[in-house]
């Protein structure tokens, strides 16, 4: 039941938590790993253990396998260590940032295969719910998926697509795709639906909720234009989960030029988050 800001929230301009004073012009900071307290490492361990009690049979294998290789269970990880392993696997690196960063900078990092990870950890009273993404959401939720070559390529192209969308006035539309895939995406597997979205994977409550049949949320196959045109909820569980059949399908489905999509969608009305169109089938039964 965690709210996770992403690209879309970066423009709202609310006061941000985090130390931006020491950031460079690309919003990069030092992680200062030595400065984390033992209490913060304990809190990380508790968050990690709680998620691991929920994720088997719910998170996709790609996430679980990479997470195990990352050895991140025993306290807040050192970014540089994982970054070296990640670079060897897919050519991505992890950079430390003070918190939310401007869209342009965010897209530039992604386009260059750099994933920004917030350095600070939530407070104990935020165990179940946090307003801004912290190191647990960013590192635990996002980094494992970057070990998957196809997903890693998708993220880079998303960054390039973001820079393009800024030129075309399509940011609102493109942000919905990030939300419904990178943050709240589900994937269909022979064993059933599994989670790959970081917003769910780092959340205490939504892991179970999103895979429970019979809730008021729908689980429908991802259609790119439909997704670009669908509003989302930032302070409740999602009312729609878009399901992919493979990461390759996601990659191939987003290869088209989005310029005509933006043109068309900007003319019309976006769909409410709880829309179910007549030709859509509920996939979680
Ligand atoms: N193909 C998209 C475009 O032309 C860019 C994109 C790629 C967006 C992958 C999202 C993910 O704008
Ligand atoms: Fe996120």
Automatic annotation (TrEMBL):
It catalyses: (6R)-L-erythro-5,6,7,8-tetrahydrobiopterin + L-phenylalanine + O2 = (4aS,6R)-4a-hydroxy-L-erythro-5,6,7,8-tetrahydrobiopterin + L-tyrosine. The keyword Zinc-finger does not apply. Pathway: Amino-acid degradation; L-phenylalanine degradation; acetoacetate and fumarate from L-phenylalanine: step 1/6. Gene3D superfamilies: Aromatic amino acid hydroxylase. Its cofactor is Fe(2+). Residues 1-285 form the Biopterin-dependent aromatic amino acid hydroxylase family profile domain. GO terms for molecular function: phenylalanine 4-monooxygenase activity. Belongs to the biopterin-dependent aromatic amino acid hydroxylase family. This is Phenylalanine-4-hydroxylase. It comes from Undibacterium aquatile. The lineage of its organism: Bacteria, Pseudomonadati, Pseudomonadota, Betaproteobacteria, Burkholderiales.
């Amino acid at each position: 039941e965690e709210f996770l800001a992403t690209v879309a929230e970066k423009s709202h301009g609310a006061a941000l938590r985090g130390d931006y004073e020491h950031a460079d012009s690309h919003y990069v900071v030092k992680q200062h790993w030595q400065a984390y307290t033992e209490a913060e490492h304990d809190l990380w361990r508790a968050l990690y253990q709680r998620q691991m009690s929920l994720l088997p049979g719910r998170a996709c294998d790609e996430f679980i396998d990479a997470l195990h290789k990352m050895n991140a269970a025993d306290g807040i990880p050192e970014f540089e260590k994982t970054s070296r392993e990640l670079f060897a696997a897919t050519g991505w690196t992890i950079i430390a940032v003070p918190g939310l960063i401007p869209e342009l900078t965010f897209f530039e990092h992604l386009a260059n295969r750099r994933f920004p990870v917030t350095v600070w950890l939530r407070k104990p009273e935020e165990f179940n719910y946090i307003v801004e993404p912290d190191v647990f959401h960013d590192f635990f939720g996002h980094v494992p998926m970057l070990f998957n070559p196809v997903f890693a390529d998708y993220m880079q192209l998303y960054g390039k697509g973001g820079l393009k969308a800024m030129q075309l006035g399509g940011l609102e539309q493109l942000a919905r795709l990030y939300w419904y895939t990178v943050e709240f995406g589900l994937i269909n597997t022979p064993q059933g639906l599994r989670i790959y979205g970081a917003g769910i994977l780092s959340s205490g409550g939504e892991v179970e909720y999103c895979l429970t049949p019979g809730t008021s949320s729908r689980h429908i196959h991802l259609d790119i234009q439909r997704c670009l045109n669908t509003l989302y909820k930032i302070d409740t569980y999602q009312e729609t989960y878009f399901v992919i059949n493979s990461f390759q399908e996601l990659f191939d489905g987003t290869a088209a030029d989005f310029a005509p999509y933006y043109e068309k969608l900007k003319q019309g009305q976006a769909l409410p988050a709880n829309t179910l169109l007549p030709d859509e089938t509920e996939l979680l039964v």
